[in-house]
Amino acid sequence: MNNRRDNWTVGEILSAMTGVEYPEYILRVVGQLQQWMEEYAPSQDAPQGEDPLAALFEGPFEIDSEKFFSQLEWVDEYADLLPNVQKPSGHEDVIVLSAGPTDFEDSLRMAIDYAALFNRKVCSRVWVISDTFIISDVHRYLSHIRALGQQGVAFRFLLVTPWGWTEIPLAAEPTRGNRISWRNAKKGGTPHGDDDLKRDDRLTK
């Protein structure tokens, strides 16, 4: 049986280039973010005698961004990290972190501006790693993301929580099986079996 195809569309080639695997440094960043989120998340155990319901509205989730980013200086060897107080080196990959008090829309604009303007001759992959996903904000920039894709810049969005993470397709061709994989592995690790890889079959309908 010969399944070889001689003709490929530009979209198919770009989709193949984006791949479904994650570089080790991306998994490490995700792991550090998860660990950091766990450290700063409000304790689930309310002090004895205190109303558990009231405790849910106290001690807001706060993040010391400066401290967190100081722990990610190693990333510069592999990718440009934004936001950053230092001028990026100009890698093919850029990581835009959007966590804690960071404005989600500002992070999307930063990612697009950097890829399209400030590093347009070099950038080929944009990784937005965020603890938030706002559909209305994403929809506002879909045309920009599609334009970057047509120019060969892959736009990858990773939604991260302390308990797991997933990649959300943005203006791209459907993923294999039209399914989103929820990765439970801690510290950015990849699943090692079916029990670790949770799929939502509702997304296929």
Detailed description of the structure:
Helices cover 32% and strands 16% of the residues. With 205 residues, the chain is an alpha/beta fold. Strand 4 and strand 5 form a beta hairpin. It is globular and about 40 Å long.
Total of DSSP H or I helical runs spanning 4+ residues: 7
Largest sheet: 5 strands, mixed
Instruction: Give average pLDDT, whole number.
Output: 74
Radius of gyration: 19 Å
Label the structural class.
alpha/beta
Q: Roughly what fraction of the amino acids lie in strands? A: 15-25%
Order of helices and strands: HHHHEEHEHHEEEE
- Cα end-to-end separation: 31 Å
Shape: globular
Number of strands: 7
Strand order of the main beta sheet, please?
1-2-3-4-5
**How much helix, percentage-wise, in residues?**
25-40%
Weakly predicted, low-confidence segments? 1-6, 8-19, 55-62, 174-179, 188-205
Give a quick set of tags describing it.
205 residues; alpha/beta; 5-stranded mixed β-sheet; two-stranded antiparallel ribbon; globular; disordered N terminus; disordered C terminus
How are the SSEs placed, and which strands pair?
Layout: H1 10-18, H2 24-40, H3 52-55, H4 65-70, E1 80-82, E2 93-98, H5 104-118, E3 125-130, H6 135-140, H7 142-150, E4 154-161, E5 164-167, E6 181-183, E7 197-199
Parallel strand pairs: 1-2, 2-3, 3-4
Antiparallel strand pairs: 4-5, 6-7
